[in-house]
Predict the structure of Cupin type-2 domain-containing protein.
Amino acid sequence: MENLDRRNLFAVFSALAAAGLAGSAGAAEPTLSQSKVLRYADLPVRKFANGSEQRRVLIGTLPTGEFLEVHETLMPAGETPHPPHKHPNSEMLFIQTGAVEYIDETGKHIPVGPGDIVFTASNQMHGLVNTGSTPATYIVVSVSTQLPEG
């Protein structure tokens, strides 16, 4: 995973699409039952007040019943996406660039960087902060059997 850059990770997502796990990007909670290729340049960009940007890759329910949400975030130096929190979905974060700290359920700050993968189990407190001097990018894969939060 050490050599898995953004381009290669999106190739992985394209492979998932070919396997039938992908659906329509940006649509409101569709059933992800149609395979397709998702072009990075076509992903809509959401901008946030703290300067972060998010590209939603997938959102919806798989035919097997799991809710899946995938997005890429660009987080400016010194910023955090939100305060530590917990939710019913499990998450994997694929750190692409930058120096960030993962805040685990005990409040411990764990340095992570490019190539590292963070797993957060369901209902565990967690957070993230960009401790570097440059923007950080990471991809979030969120899975749940519950409906997404509003």
